[in-house]
Design goal:
It is built from 9 helices and 4 strands, in the order βαβαββααααααα. It has 2 domains: 71 residues, Glutaredoxin; 116 residues, Glutathione S-transferase Yfyf (Class Pi), Chain A, domain 2 (Up-down Bundle), CATH 1.20.1050. α1 links the parallel β1 and β2. The chain is globular and about 50 Å long. It is α+β, with helices and mostly antiparallel strands. Strands 2-1-3-4 form a 4-stranded mixed β-sheet, covered by helices on one side. The longest helix is centred in the middle third of the chain and has 24 residues.
Length: 226
């Protein structure tokens, strides 16, 4: 049983404009109507940031002097401390499907395409940037094909992944598709995913969390970081 904490939280989110895990957390904070301070981090491996988060990863969420890490844990914390609106469907089966969809992105797609993996392939094995992009696109295509099939197998089609309101599934999907577009992946083969993505991006909570609406988004859009 979830119990909402009857208190106000002062939240500081350490992230970066194009940090997909951080984008997930921004979406959740926006959906819940929770105020927070956005702190852009340009060098995640710096000693200064590791003083804040020893993992050296983004995002991190500071509350009352405590620093919480890992986007899935942060989303659970926000959902438990601010339970409305719910991030999962009411139906238990749909709830499990939404969680499985989100976890597939977080645990199967994101880790092997993470910039640390691609940086290692280049630094330790001499791969070129083009070679790492082939790696990235291969595994992303594999993953998106699975997600498209998961939506095809729904009992009934809905505006969002699993229902009439956005859930964890949508929160994880939108940043992943942003990354896909950033790296030039053709999304035509995934019509259900892109339909859901469009429905989400029409919502203020999702739109405000987009990378281009963050204060550290580069003025020159050609400055595509990794």
């Amino acid at each position: 049983m979830r119990i909402a904490r009857e208190r106000d939280w002062t939240l500081k989110l350490y992230s970066r404009y194009r940090n997909s895990a951080g984008q997930r957390v921004r979406i959740v904070l926006n959906l819940k109507g929770v105020d927070y301070t956005y702190v852009p981090i340009s060098e995640v491996g710096s000693d200064a940031y590791r003083e804040i988060n020893p993992q050296g990863l983004l995002p991190a969420l500071e509350t009352d002097g405590r620093v919480l890490t890992q986007s899935t844990a942060l989303i659970a914390f926000i959902d438990e401390s601010h339970p409305d609106p719910s991030l999962v469907p009411a139906d238990p089966v749909l709830r499990a499907e939404a969680r499985a969809f989100a976890h597939f992105i977080a645990c199967e797609i994101h880790p092997i395409n993470n910039h640390r993996v691609r940086d290692y392939l280049e630094a330790a094995h001499g791969w070129s940037t083009d070679q790492t992009l082939v790696w990235y696109r291969h595994w992303l295509k594999e993953g998106l094909s699975v997600l498209e099939t998961m939506l095809q197998k729904r009992e009934k089609k809905s505006p969002f992944c699993y229902g009439d309101e956005p859930s964890l599934a949508d929160i994880y999907l939108v940043p992943q598709l942003y990354n896909a577009r950033w790296y030039g992946l053709e999304l035509g083969p995934y019509p259900l995913l892109t339909e859901v993505d469009a429905a989400c991006r029409a919502l203020p909570a999702f739109d405000a969390a987009m990378p281009e609406h963050q204060p550290d988004f580069p003025k020159d859009a050609s400055q595509h970081g990794r």
